[in-house]
Amino acid sequence: MAGNLGDRFKMAFGFTTTKMSTVLAEKGFEAEVEQPQNSQILLWDDKTKFDEVKLYRDKIEFDFAFRQVAEEYDTVFATPPMLSFSRQKKLIITSIDNVDDIEVVERYNTSPYDIEWKGLLIDMINHTFPADRLKQLNEIFKFNGIWNVSSEIFDALEITAVYIQEVQIDFVEGFEDTIAYSFKMRAIKDLEYQLLTQK
Fold first, then answer.
1. Which residues in 151-170 are b (16+ Cβ under 10 Å) and which e?
2. How far apart are CA 182 and CA 199, in angstroms?
3. CB 78 within 8 A of CB 122
4. Are the CB atoms for 184 and 165 separated by under 8 Å?
5. Is the CA virtual torsion 186, 191, 192, 198 positive or negative?
6. Residues 72-128: tens digit of each pLDDT
7. 62-71 residue pLDDT tens
8. Count of beta carbons in the 10 Å neighbourhood of residue 28
């Protein structure tokens, strides 16, 4: 694959050079890894991970992957997203009168994961404005329903479906062929699962 991914991520998300990702060599980037300026894909915190992801519903599929980017870019929608996850407990807590350091948790449950998904849309073939992919990104967001997701990280967190709450689109200075985007998502169980658990 011709092109400098490292500079694109740096301009889009403010990455600072710290170390080389060893995963790239395993994903088909051997030639790129020999040229560090082309392959320094760097993370700014330990919560953010790269993962090859599939987003799909019905017969519509979008692949976000490194391997196909290296081999045949037009078979994937975009580079793999950077993913951050957060989750909270919902608690009802009662303090006991005249007793220090003791409280009673009466009820609790666990909220679904909130997900921040960041990525790049790049026209690596013609190196022109990726209008077609931007239109598809807009269609992904406009769909008012559940998207199924599949990846190593999502599987480990037992997330099989999400809905998209917000999208942000930014243009990457110095790279006419690149658009930065981010989704705010929330994990959800599909309707069948919800109905079964309510019986």
1. beebeeeebbbbebeebeee
2. 37
3. yes
4. yes
5. positive
6. 666 678 888 888 999 998 888 887 777 777 888 877 788 899 999 998 888 877 888
7. 988 765 554 5
8. 16
Residue 183, beta-bridge partner list: 117, 167
33 close to 24: Cβ distance less than 8 angstroms: yes
CB 107 within 8 A of CB 91: yes
Q: Which pLDDT belongs to residue 37?
A: 46
Buried (b) or exposed (e) across 116-150, using 16+ Cβ within 10 A? Answer: bbbbbbbbbeeeeebeebeebbeebeeeeebbbbe
Residue at token pair 């403010």: 14
Interatomic CA distance for residues 110 and 91, integer angstroms? 9
